[in-house]
Amino acid sequence: MxxxxxxxxxxxxxxxxxxxxxxxxxxxxxYYADIPGNNDACDLVEVQFKHTRKGYYRNxxxxxxxxxxxxxxxxSPGHDIGVVSLTGQLxxxxxxxxxxxxxxxxxxxxxxARPVDMEKYExxxxxxxxxxxxxxxxxxxxxxxxxxxxxxxxxxxNKAIFYYIAxxxxxxxxxxKVLADTFHVRIEMRQIGARxxxxxxxxxxxxxxxxxxxxxxxxxxxxxxxxxxxxDISPNPQKLAGQCAKLKCCLNYEVxxxxxxxxxxxxREITLETADATFYFFKxxxxxxxxxxxxxxxxxxxxxxxxxxxxxxxxNLNKKGEKPLSLVEESDAAPTGPIDLAEQDSxxxxxxxxxxxxxxxxxxxxxxxxxxxxRPNNEHRNNRNDRRPKRKGNGEH
Length: 397
Known about the structure:
The chain is an alpha+beta fold and 397 residues long. It is built from twelve helices and twelve strands.
């Protein structure tokens, strides 16, 4: 091959090896995937299970693992089946981001999944939905104020994890006994919040994209209504709440930018004095850096919009006892918008009566209003006589 047409290794762009399976949530792009020796740099592996559950394991057997491989990992008891979602140097960074407690035991990877393991795994997954429906009925019969949102069987069918939501503390000791006798597996109960449940189920948000909690958000921060107030968002509960019935996580994304920009605006309590009126704060466009003032405290009256710099300038003049003639500077001319050529034409130009042929000398045009002017009867008669052909009398040639 001619070396002139070869692509330099540094200019290859994104590697396909770093992309994860699209049927898995919380995918992480591995930009170290195509670097030689990346897997040998760290023996830690990130393994993903059902929905958003992930675990970190040690590859003590030095298996040649790649992203997307199905492996059997250590569990208590037995083993579990998961998909490799990350290898190499990014795994320690993901563990740090997951805020694992110091001294957490890191289990190991047994092997790549065999056909026998996959048959057992498929059998376990087929039981999950029916188990969830039956467990909900059992919790209802025991009068427990809780909702079982999901059930996940271990890969070897020896253990089942029940995810539930409850507003208050629930005593589920009797529930565990009934579930163990019914399904003949080891029972583990895990309480999750509404945000975690929405992340496990997934869905499409009002923005048209997949839910953030199902794609990349791992740690949920508290969201308050102050974030909506800083961004001047209408306090409508139906628009502020997400599919989990909690405040949307995206309210925190831009609140820092709005808070920083709001520091450059004058305070709402400041009033501006001019030679003819007193102006009070009405509203502000934080990102544009403009403030609107009104001559009335309670309603919009003579609203004038100025920049934040102009507001601070007038406020400094008021401190000195000076009052400008108006809020807007005299040098500032009104912005000229684009000229609409259609406005120059008459709106009734299509209402004119267009006739074919030449018009009579005595015929008047229809006015623009659409009404035709009436003529006297003798005038109609004279015009009809004028248009008649003259008969030739006797003796005319």
